Amino acid sequence: DAGVTQSPTHLIKTRGQQVTLRCSPKSGHDTVSWYQQALGQGPQFIFQYYEEEERQRGNFPDRFSGHQFPNYSSELNVNALLLGDSALYLCASNPTGTGAYEQYFGPGTRLTVT
Amino acid sequence: GDSVTQMEGPVTLSEEAFLTINCTYTATGYPSLFWYVQYPGEGLQLLLKATKADDKGSNKGFEATYRKETTSFHLEKGSVQVSDSAVYFCAPTHRAAGNKLTFGGGTRVLVKP
Q1: In Å, how far are A10, A13, A16, A20, A81 from A112, measured between CA atoms?
Q2: Which residues of chain B, if any, have pLDDT below 50?
Q3: Residue A52, phi-psi category: left (phi > 0), alpha (psi -120 to 50), beta (remainder)
Q4: Closest Cα to residue B96, out of A67, A61, A48?
Q5: For labelling alongside B69, which of A26, B11, B33, B53 has CA 20 to 30 A away?
């Protein structure tokens, strides 16, 4: 059973460019969340997708957008990249239900903006 | 919104020493509480969880008890190994909020042989 997978592993972009990160959730999971983890800090919630819609969003600008596909995989898009967007981007998935389900994390995509 | 306060690291220990990482939280209602661990160069892994007051979560020798009266969820391990060197994150979550996690800054633990 594959866990959460993310691609690419590493990415280098220039200021002002756009980037797309991809995530496939763990089998059986239909909810995907994205987090940004700056170096030496804890992850910060960006947004969450369920049923192909953004269900909730953290305190991130509109430059950050996402999408969820019918197979539950997801993309994170960042436009007009800033140096401060350099971080580890983590995708997490969980099933929707009545339980307190933990989120399962992927290995992350390391984005460097130069 | 929710918030977490963790003791600042790094915490440096010798092998077989006792480890305690303090965590206090501020949250509305009755959150579930998690400890996640991040090994160097990796994503986060769930270490243990507790879903209601006085629950004790345990895994791999680690334990934490959900103390609602003190809003705390301190992590302990009786005898650490070099392989326990990692960053540890405490995080509350709410089922009603889609299980979104709120992280603090984490606590880096370094275990020396």
Answers
A1: 8, 6, 13, 13, 10
A2: none
A3: left
A4: A48
A5: B11
Q: Could you tell me if B6 and B108 are in contact, meaning their C-beta atoms sit under 8 angstroms apart?
A: no
Of all residues in chain A, the one with the smallest CA distance to B108 is A40
Contacts of A36 in chain B (CB under 8 A): none
B89 near A CB under 8 A: yes
Q: Select from B82, B76, B74 the least CA-distant residue to B22.
A: B74
Residues of B in contact with A34 (CB under 8 A): none
Q: What residues of chain A, 61 to 90, have a C-beta less than 8 Å from chain B?
A: 90
Q: How far away is chain B from the Cα of A86, in angstroms, using its nearest Cα?
A: 15
Phi-psi category of B29—alpha, beta or left, where left has phi over 0 and alpha has psi -120 to 50?
left
Distance from CA of B9 to the nearest CA of A (A): 11
Model confidence at A1: pLDDT above 80: no
pLDDT tens figures, A20-72: 999 999 998 999 999 999 999 999 999 999 999 999 999 999 999 999 999 99
